[in-house]
Design goal:
This protein is α+β, with helices and mostly antiparallel strands and 165 residues long. Helices cover 32% and strands 24% of the residues. It contains 5 helices and 6 strands, in the order αααβββαβαββ. The protein has a 6-stranded mixed sheet. Strand 3, helix 4 and strand 4 form a beta-alpha-beta unit. The longest helix is centred in the middle third of the chain and has 15 residues. The chain is globular and about 35 Å long.
Length: 165
């Protein structure tokens, strides 16, 4: 991603996550929305990857490096890279874009010799949960977060990248 594309990526994130607004409280949505447009990814040296179709950005994902704070609202620091803010334009979902973006992050993490890769996704994001489980991510409940103390659990997942060695 080029730096001048960050606003397009943030707009895509908001468009992609908009369907969840009705599933959470107004306060929870504001926190989620602010996370999606935060500059946390830029100031923590996250890599942002995009998928383009006919010259338009239609998908994006952030890969935060290990040993940094991936979330504005949590002091948690993982010892492995963390996938964040996967988003695909709702009008073209179902074409494997999300899968390809996650796979790209797995490949990069392997190339960088990381032993594991992780992510968190909210309990109400059913399609994301299904995708991550299909791809082989395993639940790590002890790393779950509840950022708003409102009963909405952000579930932790991890994948071992050293299976072949």
């Amino acid at each position: 991603m080029k730096l001048e594309e960050i606003e397009t990526v943030r707009d895509l994130r908001l468009k992609s996550y908009k369907e969840y607004e009705q599933l959470v409280s107004k306060e929870h949505w504001e926190v989620l929305k602010n996370t999606l447009i935060s500059d946390n990814d830029l100031k923590n040296n996250a890599k942002i990857y995009v998928t383009e179709l006919e010259g338009q950005i239609v998908g994006s994902i952030a890969l935060f490096p290990p040993s940094i704070q991936a979330y504005d609202w949590s002091e948690t620091v993982q010892e492995f890279p963390e996938i964040r803010m996967l988003s695909v334009d709702p009008s073209i979902r179902g074409k494997g874009i999300a899968n390809a973006l996650v796979q790209h992050c797995i490949t990069i993490s392997k190339e960088e010799k990381n032993a594991q890769i992780g992510l968190h996704t909210a309990s109400f994001m059913k399609k994301a949960l299904s995708l991550y489980e299909r791809m082989g991510f395993e639940r790590i409940p002890e790393l779950d977060l509840e950022p708003m103390n409102d009963g909405i659990v952000v579930k932790a997942f991890k994948m071992n990248l050293k299976r072949d060695s």
